[in-house]
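Backbone geometry:
***
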Amino acid sequence: MALPTTREEFKDYVLRKIGAPVIQINVSEEQVDDRIDEAISFWRDYHYDGSQMVYLKHALTQEEIDDGYIEVPDSLLGITRIFDLSSSISTGTGFFNVQYQFVLNNLEDITGYNIQHYYMALSHLQFLQEILVGRPLIRYNRHINRLYLDVTKSILNPGSYIIIEGYDIIDGETYSDVWQDRFLQNYASALIREQWGMNLTKFTNMQLVGGVQFNGEQILSEAKNDRKEMEDTAKTSLQPLVYNWIG
């Protein structure tokens, strides 16, 4: 059978992976959906294939400048930085830009043979920028979906753009390859098996016709071990760049 490309196909695939329909999986539809949601959430947070770095362009409004924050998409997992809002204050713009003037007056050296002086000068300018101006301070929480700009409002102008660097989720509705991710399939299987084991423990020592007994404790124990092993591996080896540093 073909690999899953939708959520429903993924659900059926995972259930077959743990034994259905040969074995009756004693888990409700709602429980399966909950465990899949839980698996996707963990995968997005801790697996490098669950998110992607994005750059968002946003035009400021006067209301946003007065409020001190902008609304951002709820799909963002984290924001790493915004590009410097005040670089034009310290280095000038257009013809008066320091970098432009330096290149203009040292063009022969740069195009000739030696760019060491140019590189050192730019590094020094960047260092001065860090010391005298610093980076724009920001605050962000993914549950609020607001990016707070803790900067002097006088450097913000309506209609000017800010560039946000952050991490966005990989949505299965847009990218069908999500449902073929091996880690996500195995992790969702472990969560559903754990739910199955928890359900069966309610029938401990119950004997069926022919002497067959439920063994929910074993299913639960194995699933918990598999889940912990996968979570430890993801947290130590599969995480993307740290994106929860946001200001």
Notes: The two ends are 47 Å apart (CA to CA). The chain has nine helices and six strands. The chain has two domains: 7-50+172-237, 51-169. The first strand starts at residue 51 and ends at 59.
